[in-house]
Amino acid sequence: MSNTTSVAFGSGVLIATPSGANATPVQFGSLQDVTLDISFSSKQLFGQYQFPIALARGEGKISGKAKFANIDGPLFNNCFFGQTSSAGQKLWAYNEGGAVPAASPYAYATANSANFDADLGVVYAASGLALTKVASAPAVGQYSVSAGVYTFNSGDAGKAVLVSYSYLQASAGSRSVISNKLIGTAPNFQIDFYQSNPNVAGAQWSLRLYNCVSTKLSIASKTQDFTIPELDFEAFANSSNAIGEINTVD
Fold it and tell me: Is there a domain that residue 52 lies in?
């Protein structure tokens, strides 16, 4: 007879805790699914018969992957990149609508010129044709930019343009510069995976892996769908030669 107490439902909950003192655990938000694979190689001993007469386990491997919907910078950094984070976020202003003034100096100041970061291009609003960036003294169909102010030629006076650029938002978000680290360097973290049975109070099971390293981060977008990042990881022994623990319903 089956025991429904030990049944689990849903994607569960996945939490990563970075290594180090007083590390803040980070949850995989909007978790879609988790896959855990535990495997061993094997060595077979044969005699004169077709099937082995002995078999021994060889190397073991624990790997997993998680798909989740939240684009979480601290999680990416703590579990994959291992960089130093700072407060503030670079945002995009994509195709900000503007117009070349009718009078000199034919300059358009972007809405976020005070926090301007980088130019990402200008196109004519009517045709979608791109203008060419120059250092100064733009001709018709050209522009120059300095500190978030775009300057055009008098021949483009009155024309509507779409300006794209990035700017810094200092009050929210986080930013990590991805540096080129030495080979072998990777952030370590503990993984806690938990599932429950919604129909039985207190019925749950969990798996904790003490030491993990992420091996791959995939981020794919598509038309008319949500972006679902995927993080792959592998587990290895800690200083006590322990891999983890599994807790289940009796």
Answer: no
